[in-house]
Amino acid sequence: MNSKKAIILPKYQKIFDGIGENIKLARKRRKLTAEQVSERAGIHRATLHRIEKGDPAVAIGIYFNVLKVLNLENDFSKIAQDDEFGRKLQDLDLL
Q1: Which residues are within 8 A (CB) of 70 and not within 5 positions of it... i.e. 6 or more apart?
Q2: For the whole model, what pTM was predicted?
């Protein structure tokens, strides 16, 4: 089966780039090597490198495993937590 590569617009790629940089900085603050984090997350070092570069093709579960190793798994649960636009749409429907 052929998989299609997701098209990411440059402004959204910048978000992934920022996430990758944040993960890299978190790893360095903890004085962990890429080898240590990748081993603990159960991934190849090359996959961690892709994450730290903000590769959107890496599975979200792999991102979670890396965050778990860095004790940042609670940050993961904050994704889409404050759905301001969705709440406004819901409020409009209530009128």
Answers
A1: 23, 26, 27, 30, 32, 37
A2: 0.84
